[in-house]
Design goal:
It is a single chain. This protein is of the alpha/beta class and 317 residues long. The chain has two domains: 161 residues, NAD(P)-binding Rossmann-like Domain (Rossmann fold); 138 residues, N-(1-d-carboxylethyl)-l-norvaline Dehydrogenase, domain 2 (Orthogonal Bundle), CATH 1.10.1040.10. Helix content is 46%, strand content 14%. The protein is built from 14 helices and eleven strands. The chain has a six-stranded parallel beta sheet with strand order 3-2-1-4-5-6, sandwiched between helices. A three-stranded mixed beta sheet has the order 7-8-9. Helix 8 crosses helix 12. It is globular and about 65 Å long. The termini are far apart. Bound molecules: NADP nicotinamide-adenine-dinucleotide phosphate. NADP nicotinamide-adenine-dinucleotide phosphate binds next to helix 1, helix 4 and helix 11.
Length: 317
């Protein structure tokens, strides 16, 4: 099948490579052309714009950073929906908010282009091994038609409902991912401030009932301060918490924890950590708290004479 793939970042490059391995003809576009070179070397054809790409394919897949990038690719000056091919299929795998996904579904439908929103769970490793989970929103017929394509990139393909419903599941998923990571980071900082070593904390907590299973995969990064290259860049996690908050605003749901976590990640981005893996929120918090545990687990402050309560009591007199 002739497939156009737009967005060749951490996830898109690996997903496109898996389609190529299954013998599909790829036409590719990415804002930064160099990222297309490995796929071109394997036979993919470069298109100079998303419109030029659309004219040559039956299916278009987008895997872009955020709603603005998706809208530009589809409806910008050289956007593919400006040259609609009736009956063509567009699968948007980017993480976007449900109302945006429904808006894109409507824009596609108005041009007789079929649309599925199909965001994914799984990171760089799962993308590489074609073990992603797809959360799909759209018409049942389109879902069944596209299932074999999605199976080239993932091993769990779920139809969640009509347009926007895949994005809805994804919002909940990443809201949990972001708040769980931040809560764990805060717990580690508390434990270390109490004199516990990181090793004891990891052994006590990871794999136990109080923490999310994915946190075990972040241990090596947190132990070694190894946050680059990222599996999932912190700036996109913060974007997802923002999109979850926008979605909640639209429905009237209250998200006090999510909004607090979102601002914590924003502070980390302002600290220069946007391209680091989102597990770096631990490093950000630890530095903010000046936590540097020693080998025997006792807390080592850069200024041992400093009273940790001084800020608390500063305004009491
Ligand atoms: P990434 O490596 O940063 O790739 C982002 C892609 O979007 C690149 O192709 C980038 O082009 C393009 N892009 C960014 N801003 C753009 C703009 N203003 N105009 C046009 N193109 C733009 O990120 P990723 O990890 O692959 O993430 C892609 C999507 O998957 C995001 O929605 C993310 O939330 C989601 N996701 C990621 C993971 C993960 O673990 N990494 C897991 C599940 C879902 P350039 O190459 O030119 O920068």
């Amino acid at each position: 099948m002739k497939i156009g793939f737009i967005g060749l970042g951490i996830m898109g490059s690996r997903m496109a490579a898996n389609l190529q391995k299954h013998g599909h003809s790829l036409f590719i576009f990415n804002r930064t052309r160099e990222k297309a070179e490995p796929l071109v070397a394997q036979g993919a054809k470069w298109a100079d714009s998303t419109a030029a790409l659309a004219l040559q394919v039956e299916v278009i897949i987008t895997m872009l950073a955020h709603p603005d990038a998706v809208e530009e690719a589809a409806l910008g000056e050289n956007g593919f929906l400006r040259y609609p091919q009736p009956g063509q299929m567009w699968i948007d795998c980017s993480t976007v908010n449900p109302s945006f996904s429904r808006k894109m579904a409507a824009e596609a439908k108005a041009r007789s282009v079929r649309f599925l929103g199909a965001p994914v769970t799984g990171s760089k490793g799962q993308a590489e091994l074609a073990k992603l989970t797809f959360w799909v929103g759209g018409e049942t017929n389109d879902f069944e038609t596209c299932r074999p394509l999605l199976e080239c990139m993932g091993n769990r393909i779920l139809h969640c409902g009509g347009p926007g419903m895949g994005a809805s599941v994804k919002m909940v998923m990443n809201q949990l991912l972001g708040t769980a990571m931040a809560a764990f980071a805060e717990g580690l900082v508390l434990g270390e401030s109490l004199g516990l070593s990181r090793e004891v904390l990891f052994e006590a907590l990871l794999g136990g009932p109080a923490v999310a299973p994915f946190l075990g995969l972040k241990r090596e990064r947190m132990e070694n301060g190894n946050y680059e290259p990222a599996d999932f860049p912190l700036r996109w996690l913060q974007k997802d918490l923002h999109l979850a908050a926008v979605s909640a605003y639209e429905t009237g749901a209250a998200m006090p924890l999510t909004n607090a976590a979102k601002e914590l990640y924003r502070l980390a981005i302002r600290d220069g950590r946007g391209s680091q893996d989102f597990a770096a929120i631990y490093d950000y918090l630890a530095h903010t708290h000046d936590v540097k545990p020693t080998n025997n687990g006792h807390r080592d402050r850069s200024d041992p004479s400093k009273d940790p309560r001084e800020n608390v009591y500063a305004h009491d007199t």
